[in-house]
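Supplementary Text 2. Reproducibility record for the structural model of the 554-residue chain.

All settings were left at their defaults, and a single model was retained for analysis rather than an ensemble. We include the record here because the model underlies the residue-level annotations in Supplementary Table 4.
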Amino acid sequence: MVQRCNRQSLFARQAMAAITWLLLTGIGTVSADTADAVDCSDSESISVHCGQAPSAVYDATGRLWVVFAQNQHAYVANSSDHGATFSSPVRVNASAENIEVNGENRPKVLTDDAGEVIYVSWTQKTEGQHTGDIRFSRSINSGASFAPVRTVNDDGLLTSHRFDSLFLTESGHLYLTWLDKRELEYAAQRGDDYTGSGVFYTVSDDQGESFAANRKIADHSCECCRIAVAPHGEDGMALMWRHVFDGTTRDHAIAAIGPDGVRAPFGRATVDEWQIDACPHHGPDMTLGADTDGEATYHMTWFSAGDLHKGIYYGRHDLASGKTRLVTQIDGNAGASHPQVAERQGVQHLVWKRFDGSQTQVLWIFSQDEGSSWSEPQVLASTDNASDHPLLLEGPDQLRLSWHTRNDGYQVIALPEPGLDIKAFTADSFAQIKRERAGQPFVLALWSVDCPPCMVELDLLGRLRQEDPDLPLVLVSTDAMDLKADAEDFLRDYGLDDMTSWMFADDYAAPLRFSIDPQWYGELPRSYYFDAQHQSEAHSGIMTEAQLRSWLAL
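Retained model, structure tokens:
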């Protein structure tokens, strides 16, 4: 364990230094640090808008803390208005050092609930090709000053210690994990081959004053992708990384650790069969989901160009069984990259960026059923110049997007409140619905916001769905999407708001009706029963309860 210092004397020294620093410099006051006010062509303009690779976190009071790198220093600033203005940045490292600032390998920041203790880590580039050390500092006076920077990897080797991730548990345990090539050095001394890096970690139980000895989680990780972290119980951490399986396959692994060691040895999290001897530079992300029979599940997102899967994907992983379910392609475009996933109040949110040849867009989707289905993508932001990876921030009131671009500096953008999951029904949608329900019977119910008889049928369907939430029911509104708000109101009124629905993509309804049934004249309500072989029976007008119960096998 790293040498402990006297906490009381450390607190006193830092408090006195902070007071002196505040009196002399006014650090901590709100400055005019806005994207419009800062001239980044001036090398003396130290600002989150001019710096590189900003990472951010909210404390429990709603204050936003951001760390960024500029001129070989890490700086921390805070904002009480969601990034509209920032306090004057405070330098973390007294001496300049070469800080990794690519999107996958960036400075990190965490705080305690009150924003009194601030934790910062980064990877320092050292002399030698692809070598580095994991660096750490903290502030115990709300970011007024920072303790001397320490190296956390304890092997003393000039080798690769890179791609750090920082995590704080409910119990107050502070974890640092990273990719580490010490085992490669040891293998070379023995004359053995060694593929990739090791995954190592350390943990502190005293607010970062000291850290336990480094521990190994796994051998043979891919050496150039970020590590995703999430809670595992009150005092543990789950982590996901790109791993080298069988010498050449770069898919993903997952494990769980605690203060006393590895709790769940690593297992395979994704099966993409990406056969490549190269650096993908695309790390995964994950967030804790709902418990299943008392066991943790994790919502995961990743990029692959494998033989089985290409593009950005989502999956839900059960750590106890080791199985990843609901594997879904989110975006198969070649320009799609760097997804992030988060959960808030039972809703899963996923963002990523995509370059279309002229612009880079940040796209957002959400799921209200634990990842079983996803909304249509919406564009949150865009730029026609260079941009950083999109990151998701969990605030006290809602989720926000953290994004840095060359044109607009650092932005914090509130995610829209998820509406109902209503998808645009096109000429191809009916075939998609049948594919998704292959071998399964279902009822297709068509309705409109200006159809009073439809309301009678929606009321009946809502009451039947209360009996069985898993009714094989598909709702399609024949209204164009510009009436979505009205449709949402009716679906909420009749208790049908927590299921996937469809609306006609535009007001040219004839081809959309034809795609469902060339013999349908457009009368509403209109209902169809499809058996397991998808042979259909149609009905126009309000369905009786007895007929619906028969169709829905109630």
